[in-house]
Write a structure and sequence with these properties.
globular, five-stranded antiparallel sheet, 22% strand, alpha+beta, HIT family, subunit A
């Protein structure tokens, strides 16, 4: 069954798309956790970070270059931002199509308070 991200990629459901190439799509999170909360998603369906294969090396590099470009466009490349990837249920992954969260535009607190 196609993930919600595949449905966005295929334009079956709407999203506020901020960046797109042949391999990658990025859009605003519908439940933002910061001033800017963007999801960067490969168009290739890969369930978890554990499922990345050697042939995906270029794709993963393109994702990080997209993150660099998006954060520069937002003007947060110099002030700072956080990139998060969750893996599997204990890691907080809710959509099983790998994706990278960009959080920024304000001071981001600690990852986890003890």
């Amino acid at each position: 069954m196609a993930s919600i991200f595949t449905k966005i990629i295929n334009r079956e459901i709407p999203a506020d798309i901020v960046y797109e190439t042949e391999d990658i799509i990025a859009f605003n999170d519908i439940n933002p956790q910061a001033k800017y909360h963007i999801l960067v998603v490969p168009k290739k369906e890969i369930s978890t970070i554990n499922d990345i294969q050697k042939e995906d090396t270029d794709l993963i590099g393109k994702i990080y270059l997209a993150i660099k470009e998006i954060t520069k466009e937002l003007g947060i490349d110099k002030t700072g931002y956080r990139v998060i990837t969750n893996c599997n249920e204990d890691g907080g992954q809710e959509v099983f199509h790998i994706h990278f969260h960009i959080l920024g535009g304000e001071k981001i607190g600690p990852m986890r308070s003890k």
